Amino acid sequence: xxxxxxxxxxxxxxxxxxxxxxxxxxxxxxxxxxxxxxxxxxxxxxxxxxxxxxxxxxxxxxxxxxxxxxxxxxxxxxxxxxxxxxxxxxxxxxxxxxxxxxxxxxxxxxxxxxxxxxxxxxxxxxxxxxxxxxxxxxxxxxxxxxxxxxxxxxxxxxxxxxxxxxxxxxxxxxxxxxxxxxxxxxxxxxxxxxxxxxxxxxxxxxxxxxxxxxxxxxxxxxxxxxxxxxxxxxxxxxxxxxxxxxxxx
Length: 249
Fold this sequence. Notes:
By secondary structure, this protein is α/β, with parallel strands linked by helices. The protein has 8 helices and 11 strands. It starts with a helix and ends in a 7-residue tail after the last helix.
């Protein structure tokens, strides 16, 4: 191989490397301080996916949707991601609200009416639905976007049973349901693991396009850093990393 050919080869690889480095540098947002993000517990996995790209330095505060919204209104966050609809917010992804039970529970499917009767306290034993043992219902606290959706789509004005256990986060719901055989709860489908079992709702699995309980993620920004982060999430790179967990608009 001639020296000229070798020189051209090295020049080509050097140019390719520098072009790739420049592209990566341009893609990395340049903010001297961490971008402050408030996120409801149902959508913490969404923010974690962004963190895993290594492109963003985020300061994350997690809590119920109304807690996050209150912090946003007080100027504490550049960007807020919640499960409550706001006129000025934009939908960045859609999750499912999964109904979870202990893996030993023999009940595999529930209708919306059966869910309502369970959470209202009218069905107190799983034997009435083909299972066995006492029913223990677990709900989220007031201010949770997941609870707001559940009350709107399932309860439809029916009161929650006074016997319901109130969990402060989606992870708390999962932890409790995973060790209590008679327990039932609801959480973001993106958070469900092997420690619990999801039941069909109206015969539909959470992976089904027409699953009846959809949980949208709403985002709202108020600083330049928040706007840039939202642009990334809605852009090609953001959509690619979120698409394996969520439905995208």
